[in-house]
Write a structure and sequence with these properties.
Blueprint: E1 15-18, E2 29-34, E3 48-52, E4 56-69, H1 74-80, E5 95-108, E6 122-126, H2 129-135, E7 145-157, E8 160-169, H3 170-173, E9 181-184, H4 192-206, E10 211-217, H5 238-246, H6 254-263, E11 272-277, E12 289-291, E13 313-315, H7 320-323, H8 327-330, H9 338-349, H10 355-371, E14 377-378, E15 381-382, H11 383-394, H12 396-399, E16 408-410, E17 425-430, H13 436-456, E18 463-468, H14 471-474, H15 483-494, E19 500-506, H16 514-518, E20 522-525, H17 530-533, H18 543-549, E21 556-561, E22 568-571, H19 582-587, H20 594-603, H21 612-618, H22 624-639, H23 647-660, H24 670-681
Parallel strand pairs: 9-19, 9-20, 10-17, 10-18, 11-13, 11-17, 12-16, 18-19
Antiparallel strand pairs: 1-2, 1-6, 2-5, 3-4, 3-6, 4-5, 7-8, 14-15, 20-21, 21-22
Region (Disordered): 638-670
Organism: Rubrobacter xylanophilus (strain DSM 9941 / JCM 11954 / NBRC 16129 / PRD-1)
Protein name: Conserved hypothetical cytosolic protein
Amino acid sequence: MLHPEYLDTSSGPIGRAVTSEEYPATAHEFYFWTAETEAARRLDIGHIVAAESEDATAIAVLDDPRRYSDLQSFLDDFYAHDGDAALEPLSERTEILVFRARVLATRHRHPGRKSRRPVRSGPVYFATREAIEFALGVEDFSGTPIPMLLHENGNERDGRPQRTPLYADEDYLLGPEAGHLNITGMSGLSTKTSHALFTIASIFQRSRRKVAALMFNVKGADLLFLDKPAQVDPEEDPELAARYERAGQRGLSDEEREMYRELGLRTEPFENLRIFAPLRPGMDPGESVVRARDLDARQLNTLRNARGEDHCVHPIVWDLGGILPYAGRIFEHSDYDDKFRGFVETLRADGVDTMEAFFRKMGEIQDYFEEEEGRSSWRGHNRMTINKVWNRFNGLPSKCGGLLVHGRVDYSDSPHVEDAFADREMRVVDISRLTGVPQDLVVTKVIERIWEKAELGELGVDKLIIFVDELNKYAPAGAASSPLRETLVDISARGRHLNLTLFGAQQFRSKVHDEVVGNAATSLYGRIGDEELTNASYRSFSQTTREELLQLEKGRLLLRHAHYAVPVFGRFPRPPVLMGKQGTDIFGGQRVDLATEVHSVLRRMMNRPPTLQEIRADLDGEEPGRVHEALDALRAAFRGGRGPKNPYESLKRSLRRGSRRPAERWDPDPAILANVERLRGD
């Protein structure tokens, strides 16, 4: 044997390579019939085998199984049974099972020499883990191997299949050699978001670079509790474990934990999570200056807003100056004509950057028209156009769905969605409760600003991953164009050189711009509908592979990577984080009692917070409204850097003072109280 370490001889030969006039072996595929052994009966589509040529060992993926007999036609069998299906034949007809094997790689007997020699007639074996890793090009990776899937082969040990991690080369996933990941599959069945999270977690754990990720949450609470584990230890926190159980949260199974061990990954949530969300409608404070740090999470349009769990939630609010450059995306195309656009540009040139300034400017224009009757234009703009702008801008705050405020926005002491990223930061933009125009506006503006930062080298990390779901909506195929589509095309073409990587997902790959999917060096395919598979995008797949994609179960995907000559099937475990409505069921404010809310807040302020039992005893008989008021004052003091040394004692004293205070007595500022507490502690 040329490479005995590549052939699993313990299972014995599982078949024999055969060449014929009709089906000759080539450099890229060969055929073999299977043996009648227990190991051979485990052969299936996607398994990997090895066979030898004169000077090389070929490692190949199984495809297109067919069963043959010597029958010339179906009629021969019909007549042999005299048309009676129950009739037993006098002798059993010989049948053989034949697989086509698509070659992943060949290894020559002499190191360093390449080989494309077809295999010769001879025994075929299951490929070992070493053979699979060689065939997938791991030896040639220039970057860190990133686990993507776990391949399962038919050569079993103690009833368990041989498993081999399927890696992607980091330099071909994040750049600079190539880049970008694309995931295709039916909604709800192909686990696109789950695998994107799994891949990002793999990168965070394995990469030696400073990396971060930006994701857009478009479905409920899917991505809002990524800092929470999929399960908790009942001994460490029995009350929280009971809430997990009541919510029906299913933790990782023993099988999934074993998969993580075999992939060499830890089962841990994302520690550095920041969530950004717009205001809820009607929550605009209406002030001349809106300070972002003063906006409470309960004013934001997000499902993560419970006290104690909102420490990572921050606002996305823009003034008119941040909205005007995108007026063409906000107003109807037929409405936003050249005259409308011209007046908007005049407003921008005049420095009108708030709704307050807009109303003031419109008042000045109205005075101008009233000063002298008969005036029909102002600075070249027709009065009818100005009236139209006035009418449309009156509805602008509601049209922007909580993104636009009346005054100027001050982010000077609050995190901003467009800030530079920290290493291993997971940043989520929650647009799940927005629809139409405001949702598109957020995605467009945020991605364009991040792209500008990438061009200036101001990302703050070596590599930033942007995950965009429903890519066919934001970068559609066809002639129609938009600023966001052009930005995404630009990212796919040049992003890897500017430390920006696009992770895109969609149900219909064929409906995404060709350059976006064409520039993705790594692609994953889950279950796909038959109407999609008929598209030319899948013509490189064999008929068997296409039919397999029609019925893939959850957690099983087809991986195509720059280093792979042939795509390979594999599985992956669920991400070890909370996803979906279980997050709000467990950590939503309406789901927990008062003591748990206080405990959640104190855990962010103290190394050793009091137990839930202590808090329940101390709060017995207190009105929830008063506790919430004192708790919010305490949190505000900590946000401003004025928190007391012992937050819990400060909270209790505040509640005791409140219970003795007459109704007409002056109520001091919570910040002053916090400073007094700090002085007492000193």
